[in-house]
């Protein structure tokens, strides 16, 4: 019975990590009704098998490589995460802010990697979590690559508001995506999380196809409009470094918009 209970506990933790984007030892102990030491052992075991990984700053356990693989982290995703991590670390050092890497999965953006800033007040990357793509800067640079019919087919006429600043109509989103196509970058201001802003650029394969969104994420007061041009230049350099680091024959699962598309 104890072995069965351990399996149930492990699966419950996996569900929690994937739904919330991350858990703490205390939360697991409270939810499962077990001692914190037992929760720590359980999470440590999952970490040793790469199902979760612990953030060294916050001590939060987030989805690891195996969980990301089970939920769509295909060979292409693993390749881009590997290629992106060092440029993301350099970008974090240059900007002093958190960095996130995201991909488009149907109508949602999934955060597949992140670097957390050292500031006490910071935006924490939610690796493994998903949000409506229209509500994030990284998601918008990927939506901007799609045709208007594809985008409208994803969301319908009305968009769910995550905060009071979230874009909530298709005409507004369509105009926003047109401006992003022209500018080459996207900005969000408190639209997925109140008080948090981001600026993002696309990461492109050699053929020009955008496969990920690379973003600098920070409390809004530390990401003013007046300083965006410098950050955008830093983002573009990092995106080029990621593209160079990708293998020439890097595979990529075509999940932009619909899983069924094969073009």
What do you see in this structure?
This protein starts with a helix and ends in an 18-residue tail after the last helix. By secondary structure, it is an alpha+beta fold. Helix content is 43%, strand content 18%. The chain is globular, with a radius of gyration of 19 Å. The chain contains nine helices and eight strands. The protein folds into two domains: 2-67, Orthogonal Bundle (Arc Repressor Mutant, subunit A), CATH 1.10.10.10; 72-245, Beta-Lactamase, CATH 3.30.450.40. α2 (25-32) crosses α3 (36-48) and α5 (75-95) packs antiparallel against α9 (228-245). It has helices at 2-20, 25-32, 36-48, 65-70, 75-95, 137-143, 148-155, 170-183, 228-245; strands spanning 52-54, 61-63, 98-105, 108-115, 130-132, 186-189, 196-204, 210-219. Mean pLDDT is 82; it is low at 71-75 and 249-263. The protein has a six-stranded antiparallel β-sheet, with helices on both faces. Strands 1-2 form a two-stranded antiparallel ribbon.
Question: What key attributes describe this structure?
Answer:
9 helices, 18% strand, alpha+beta, 6-stranded antiparallel sheet, two-stranded antiparallel ribbon, Beta-Lactamase, disordered C terminus, 263 residues
